[in-house]
Design a protein that fits this description.
The protein has helices at 22-27, 67-78, 113-124, 141-146, 148-165, 188-204, 224-232, 255-268, 296-306, 336-349; strands at 40-45, 84-87, 91-92, 95-96, 127-131, 171-175, 211-212, 237-241, 272-278, 280-282, 291-293, 313-316. The protein has 351 residues and is α/β, with parallel strands linked by helices. It has one domain (27-349): TIM Barrel. The relative contact order is 0.17.
Length: 351
Amino acid sequence: MKRRNFLKTFGASATSLLLLNNSVASSHPESKINPVIKPIKGSWFEFQHVFAPEGKYWNPVLPKFTEEQWKAKIKEISETGMEYLVLMAVAYDGKTYYPSKLKPRHEYACIDPLEAVLSAADECNMKFFVSNDFWSDWQNVKKMMTDPEVAKLREKGMEEVAEKYAHHKSFYGWYYPNETGLSNSFDDITINYVNNCTRIAKRLTPRSINLIAPYGTKSVRIDSEYISQLEKLDIDIVAYQDEIGVRKTKAGFAGKYYEGLNKAHAKAGRSRLWADMEIFEFEGDVYKSALIPASIDRILKQMEDISPFVENILVYQYLGIMNKPGSIASVGHPDSGKLYTDYMNWLKTQK
């Protein structure tokens, strides 16, 4: 997911037809707790953050997690009412996060973290979108999406993952993490990549529900070309990044983008519209420092803004940014416990 570029390789965005002017920005009312706000329904999930400075508060800890801790983390997330988890990667830097015949395994305390989290998700009635990558250099996006040899390895990886793990009831579908980003519209490289991945996914797991999460949301130009490209895209769910955490827009204004996207998806009549909402801040400079929890006030404003236009709100990400106090699977920034408590206190007011 190239917001996380993982978070660092954006170019200049195209001018959006959906941009708000400064006068609107200055007059936007403060968000209030509102019973019609959709709660968070899921989160991205990772065994390692691929850009080390951003994963400062969880990368050193995760390799030490035992099977019991991985399972406890899933149970902990389920207690928040979240239903969906999106696994970022099954492989990285030439190694896998599960025992594989294709590549060597990352040396983690838990021999098979993927089995651990899927087993726990089975018990908690959660649904996983399982990643089909990163089998090659995630930073070379074009190669990842177009190189025939990478495509062969990815397909073999999907076959292996499906054979080993698709029996889990929590194996809901696939997540395709490679993205070239939106600049006015989806490009043909992305469409071809997504459609090829879906072809394989449906062969291996015919009932799978599959997801992508594009960045560049505010650059979208809602016009006939965009709708036409959406119609070509063989994907069940598009969860657009709101880009608040990466400071490309401000809390309270992304709703305008989703409003336009809602209309476009309705006209295309194909994929469902979800949100990939960023609940992090940067500790320092954007793309050059650790990810830390945003305030609950900012997050509630984000939720209020986009709720009317999307089916579900997913977040990037619970792990490391939210953390149940006292958990045996404690991992993340020191303020992650406070955000967990603040969110759960808000959630109780909605019942």
